[in-house]
Amino acid sequence: MRRAFRLLPLVVGATYLAALVLIAWWPTHVDAGLGVVDWPLTRALAAVAGISASSAYAVIEVAANVALFVPLGLLVSWRFPGWRWWGVVLVGALVSVVIEVVQAVTPLDRTASVTDVLANTGGAALGALAVRWAAGRRLVR
Fold it and tell me: 101 near 112, Cβ under 8 Å?
């Protein structure tokens, strides 16, 4: 059982990385053609915050980038419990920079962005800190 628990992060991690690669290097923007700016959630956020729908979409996009990298922080912290939290954050930042550089230098219809790197790094930090918090409460080992 203990060996299976040690392999679980690898299996979950491989699945997550496959999804991350598909999302990050999809030939076009993942939400292209979905009309996210016109979604009720986007309009509601715009109304509550007193901003335009396109500004609300930008907020949603940043939040999605944060959420996309939380699992990376969780998985790296889980797999390498001896690492300091900032080492996990550094891994998140490096993975994000690689993604953005590939988006910038390849013919993908994608936009490289410093904002994405910052949001992704923040997500990895949240994941790393969540594992530290859970370990401190003995929710994980």
Answer: yes
What pLDDT was estimated at residue 48?
94
Rg from Cα positions in the chain: 17
Torsion of CA 87, 91, 93, 94, to 10 degrees: 130
In angstroms, rounded to a whole number, what is the distance separating the alpha carbons of residues 58 and 138?
37
**pTM of the model as a whole:** 0.86
How far are the Cα atoms of 27, 63, 99, 110 from residue 58, in angstroms, in the given order?
20, 9, 19, 15
Dihedral (C-alpha) 84, 89, 91, 97: value to the nearest 10 degrees? -160
CB 127 within 8 A of CB 72: yes
Residue with tokens 């053609």: 33
Contact (CB, 8 A) for 96 and 20: no
Residue 48 CA: distances (Å) to CA of 13, 43, 62, 73: 37, 9, 18, 31
pLDDT in tens, 33-85: 888 888 898 999 999 999 999 999 999 999 999 999 999 999 999 888 889 99
